[in-house]
Specification:
single chain; mainly alpha
Length: 105
């Protein structure tokens, strides 16, 4: 069986099979950025600087495991979908808050 056929979209996009070092780094950076976006949109609260740094440190370390899984599984693709859903949710929530603010005034 050909490995190229089994790669996820982002792994194939970054050509992990042809250039593993650069491809894995690009996949890792993509997963880290998408994880931070999903975390900020869905779960983040205002925290002191040290606590936030610890959380982001563990998030970045956890993305290492996700990167190895993301070569054959749709990890980055799932993060893109989660980010899109959370962006739509935040936009609708802001619109609803503005409407309630206009009705109260």
């Amino acid at each position: 069986m050909n490995v190229t056929e089994r790669l996820s979209f982002f792994a194939a996009l970054f050509k992990v099979d042809d250039n593993p070092t650069t491809g894995m780094w690009w996949l890792y950076i993509t997963i880290v950025i998408l994880s931070i976006i999903v975390f900020k949109l869905g779960f983040a609260k205002k925290l002191p600087l040290v606590k936030a740094a610890v959380i982001y440190l563990f998030l970045i370390l956890g993305c290492t495991v996700l990167t190895f899984l993301g070569v054959f599984l749709p990890v980055a693709e799932g993060l893109v979908v989660a980010a899109l859903i959370l962006i739509i949710y935040k936009i609708r929530l802001n619109q609803e808050r503005k409407q309630k603010g206009n009705e109260t005034a």
